[in-house]
Design a protein that fits this description.
By secondary structure, the chain is an all-alpha fold. Helix 1 packs antiparallel against helix 3, helix 1 runs antiparallel to helix 8 and helix 3 packs across helix 7.
Length: 144
């Protein structure tokens, strides 16, 4: 069973995740040339991609701690623990491979971020936020 405090925190984070996803969907409509040449677009995309990834990591760590699951060595292993404990599906886990790496680039290597890579992530990978949200909600329903 998930503690009520953790449950409420996760629900709040899931709501924020969806709000940020909707913002990313709007930015996704911008064409490549405009995106890479206008700091308004790429800066917003970078920030909201980072926030979404941070939320997924936070939620994952909350579940790991609350359920007393195996402690991951680093952010790379957080999703692996969830997969092994059947919190998320193997398919979801495979989609999240590299997410922690991309987050590290956004946070630590911000001076040399390739805008094309950000654009490609925006175009190809944001649906994983919705799928993650669904899988976590399903898990919470089972644990409450």
């Amino acid at each position: 069973m998930i503690s009520p405090i953790v449950f409420n925190k996760i629900i709040s984070k899931l709501e924020n995740l969806f709000d940020y996803y909707k913002i990313l969907k709007e930015i996704q409509k911008v064409n490549r040339k405009s995106f890479v040449n206008d700091y308004h677009f790429y800066s917003l995309a970078e920030r909201y991609l980072q926030l979404c990834i941070e939320i997924m990591l936070d939620i994952s760590k909350m579940i790991i701690n609350d359920q007393d699951l195996k402690k991951p060595e680093d952010n790379q292993n957080v999703f692996s623990v969830l997969k092994d404990e059947k919190v998320i599906s193997k398919k979801m886990y495979n989609q999240l491979l590299g997410v922690a790496n991309f987050r590290n680039i956004l946070v630590h290597d911000y001076e040399k971020i390739d805008r094309e890579i950000v654009y490609n992530n925006l175009q190809k990978n944001i649906e994983q936020f919705v799928q993650f949200r669904k899988e976590i909600a399903k898990y919470l329903n089972k644990k409450c």
